Amino acid sequence: MNYEVVIGLETHVELETASKIFCSCGGHSAANEPNDCVCPACSGMPGMLPVMNKRVVELAVTAGLMLNCEISRYTTFDKKNYYYPDLPCAYQITQINHPICTNGLVSLKTSQGPRDIRIKQIHMEEDAGKLVHSGNSSFVDFNRTSVPLIEIVTQPDFRSAEEVVTYLGKLKNMFRSGGISECEEGAMRCDVNISVRPEGSEEFGVRTEIKNMSSFEAIEKAIKYESQRHIDAIEFGTEELVQETRRFDDVTGKTSAMRNKETEADYRYFPDANLMPIVIDDEWLEAIKAAKPTAVDEKAEEYREAGISDKEIDMLLANNKILRLLDDTVALGCNMKDTAAYILTDCMGILRKAGKTISELDITAENLAAVIKMVADGKINRNAGKKVLIAMIEDGADPVEFCKANGLDKQVDSSAVESIVDAVIANNAQAATDYRNGKVKALQALFGACMKELKGAGDPTVIKALLENKLK
Amino acid sequence: MTEYITKICDNGNIAVDDTILVKDAVATAGSKILEGFKPLFSAEAVTRLLDKGYTVSGKTATGEFGLDLVGEFSYYAPQDGNLKGAAAELVAKGDVKAALGVDMNGATRRAAALSGVDFLKPTYGTVSRYGVISCAASGEQLGVYAKNADGIREIMDVIAGHDSKDGTSLPEEKYDYSISAVNGKKVCIVKELLDKADDAAKAKVLAVAEALKADGVVVETVSLDVFDLANTAWQILMCAETCNNVSRYDGVKFGHRAEKYRNIDELYVNTRTEGFNFLTKTVILYGSDVLSKNRYKDCFDKSLRVRRVVSEKMAELFASYAAVLTPVCSKTSYEDYDINDAFIKVFEESVFTCVPNLIGAPALVTSGVQFIGKNFSESTLLSLGASAEGKGE
Fold first, then answer.
1. Which pLDDT belongs to residue A411?
2. Do A48 and B288 lie within an 8 Å CB cutoff?
3. Which residues 59-118 of chain A have a CB within 8 Å of chain B?
């Protein structure tokens, strides 16, 4: 018999805010040492009250708009009760009754064709801290406590691990380019709800939930393992399936039971009286809409039309910083396709040689635009342009200053170039003869000699063409 | 009786209940669970008073988390037959000009009534709760004890007004606490509530009514059967919120920690078994129960709906009357009693005090009686209080 896998996803995404969700502590990414970013509020001391960080609401709404959600105009917070040493108040502030966004839709392109995933809701909540175990002791680090999260809950609309990974990749691209989250390692975590049913069946099978996975690879492996486990249980009766929560072990590649429905905690949710309901009026919503970056789909379309390849588009969308550099440079009057090539070919090549990654690229749009324009206007040649880029990337050089200091911007008129080419041919008679006799390689020596005379100025293609013409 | 848990200075003019934080002064909320806890900051109300040149004499004993009748079950100051409340007593004796207390389940109002001083439970959101050791966040409010209405006005003028550190703080910077003539105002006595008091407590209400009439106030008796319902709803919400708010006291971060434990669960259980008194434990059990999946809808959720109904019923009264005049306690003094009986005793007495906590309305205790008004009617309540002063004795 053929089986269909049914999957629903809960994805937690850490938001890029300057401070935590209910206090003014910096986010944990600002922390160097354990408990660097902690105050009486986020460590649960009595007397402190949570005060809502407005930016969290705006980012959650922006995420909702990106995922085509309805935005709630009235949204409230609830408390979720459980004891754990990394949860200082013994409750987590989250949203149950009135989440900020509902009823969204994400369209995916998969190898099986297009697919629509319905978003049930997006809610805001605070993260918990972290336990560090050492020998017989455990230590608590509250740096991550109260870092803002959104949780995106889908309907059970996925039918394969591939769809899940495509969806997560899309979320990641959207959130990075939209300034919602950098989605770095651990900042995007998933709970996967999974069940299996005979193909064509309308009823759902027994559902299990695999908790807290942060790498796409683990998620894919876990789904494959878990769905096979379900199929084996149904097909061969290898075990009795029960509704339960499971964890995935990266090393063994297997899932194992954590707790079943009977022993599941009762979180005793109830409204948080310390946080007033948030009302999102027309004015605020319009302001958030106006500030929302172009949706990733529209962005990709724009790039595609400019002639940028799909592979390059993916590279651009995966990195918010690069995306901004491209857009800002284009805004300064540079050609989009050229700019993309400068960033993805030249800059990336230079960085790779230095053992760095594209995220370490630290140049301004103004400087990049200056280089591109100098080359486009023929003020310097492409090679000189590359030298300028190296100086900019490695030494933070100013492009115009650098050209002046190194004589790269020397204006070379075509008659000067021609006389130099003539002189080189005259001084290298042997090479000229060799070339004329069919030794193609000889041209390279002549070209090199010209470049040396011109000290890097002059357009290489023009010089080559001149040489070829004169040696015909 | 032990009045101060921590003495701060000899000539201070403000006493602060141990449920309110004063920077660097040990704050316990009367509980062993917070033994030795030194706060890093002062409550906003305390800071505002210090900024205006007031001085804090010390931290006064309260019952554990303010859950008892008047402060009899403090871990640090066991009851000694004088059930009146430490802060109220200090104000009555004239040792301090005023005191700050947290009104959550009526303990501060009852203490004021039994000690013969005034206490104002302000409108919810008008005084910052920043620095209050919180239990029932939806209805607790920091209030003021003073000798008379004018003493309360003086302190309220300093402490009330918006505080950005409290998300429930209302936006207004200033409120009206002025005292003026009361002639022509209408006040009602609710029959159902008056009948719950004994003759001595009733007599206080009737004496104040007579005094008000002499000042030109119209006093009428009305019937409104909503107080038992309101009390049940408030006890449910109060227990649920308290259970949740005290769950942070787990021995991991501060306060008391059990000496003997083999794992994290034992650390929690042993610490909390040793740290809380019987009354707090009872409240935690009730609170956990009303929030549990099976009971939430019929208990907690229904209480939220009752809160709206009571609010509407009271609004109807306030449309005709400037205030409701009620007893504060069922009698005029309390004797020692066993902590095992505390939950039900407090529950029975809270029928007089629950409505202001449930709906956020202000209440003034003066001359052993209580005036309840609509939101922001403190000026009217203080004016009525000034007129009634000393007349309930």
1. 57
2. no
3. 79, 81, 83, 85, 88-91
- The answer to whether residues A306 and A377 belong to one domain is yes
CATH of the domain at A444: 1.10.10.410
Chain B residues close to A138, C-beta within 8 Å:
264
Tens of pLDDT, residue by residue over A187-208, are: 899 999 999 999 999 999 999 9
**CB distance from A54 to chain B under 8 Å?**
no
Q: Are A68 and A126 in the same domain?
A: yes
Cβ-based contacts of A24 with chain B (< 8 Å): none
Within 8 A of B240 by CB-CB distance, chain A residues are: 270
- Angle at which helix A296-305 crosses helix A310-317, to 10 degrees, equals 140
Angle at A328 between CA A340 and CA A29, to 5 degrees: 95
For B89-138, write each residue's pLDDT tens digit.
Answer: 999 999 999 999 999 999 999 999 999 999 999 999 999 999 999 999 99
Q: Which CATH superfamily is domain B4-229+305-388 in?
A: Amidase signature (AS) domain (3.90.1300.10)
Chain A closest CA to B207's CA: distance in Å? 39
- When divided into structural domains, chain A yields a total of 3
Q: Which domain holds residue A39?
A: 3-279
Tell me if chain B has a CB within 8 Å of the CB of A133: no
Which residue among B166, B268, B288 sits closest to A268, beta carbon to beta carbon? B288
Q: Which residues of B touch A40 (CB under 8 A)?
A: 39-41
- A19 and A72 within one domain: yes
Q: Supply the ipTM of this predicted assembly.
A: 0.94
Our CA dihedral for B240, B246, B248, B252, rounded to 10 degrees, sits at -140
A59 and A18 within one domain: yes
Give B300→chain A minimum CA distance, Å.
Answer: 8
A289 in any annotated domain = no
Tokens of B229: 């319902």
Give the DSSP letter of residue A158.
Answer: B
Is A285 domain-assigned?
Answer: no
Q: What is the DSSP letter of A53?
A: -
